[in-house]
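Hello again, I could really use a second opinion on something today. Take your time with it, there's no hurry, and the full record follows here:

___
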Amino acid sequence: MELLIILAVVVVIGLAVVGVYNSLIQLKNKVDEGWADIETQLKRRYDLIPNMVETVKGYAKHESGTFEAVTQARNAAMNAKTPEDKIQAENALSGTLKTLFAVAENYPELKANQNFMELQATLKEVEEKLQLSRRYYNATVRDFNTKIEIFPNNIIAGAFHFARRNFFEIENPEERNNVKVSFDDQNKK
C-alpha cells in the first residue's frame, strides 16, 4: 500500500512537471513567434527606407547628413544579430526616420509628390504593424518571464534552462522626445 502511495505521488509530480514544461514551451514559442513578426515588419521597413531616402534626396540635396544617418542606422539595424542589438539599432533607426520626415516637412513640393505620399503612407502602415508586433512580443515576454519566475515553475524552468527574455523597449530616454530640427537660412548665402 505504501508503494502505491509513493508511486501515485511520483506520477502526480511527474505529470505536474510535464504540464509546467509544456506550458513553458508554448510560451517560449509565442515569444519566438512575436519576434518573428517584428522581424517581418522590420524587413518591410528596411525595403522602404532606400526608396524614401532617394525620393527626399531629389528635393533636399543639402541634407546629405540626414540621409547618411538614416542609411547608416538602417544598415546597423539590418546587421544586428542578437535581439538586444536589434532593439538598440531599431531605436536608433526610428530616431533617424523622424529626422527624415522633419526634413521633408520643409519642402512643400516634396510633400505633394505622389511617390513620396505613397511611400509615406506605406511606411506609416508598416510602423503601425511594427508597433502592434512589438506589443504582442512584449506581452508574450511578460507572460513567459512571469511563468518562469513563479514557484514551483522556477525550479522546472531552471532545470530545463529557460531564461528570461528582454522586452522590446526604448533604452535611450532622449528617443522618447520629439525630434527637433532647425535649419540655417540656406537662401541668405
User: Anything to note?
Assistant: The first helix runs from residue 2 to 59. The chain has six helices and no strands.
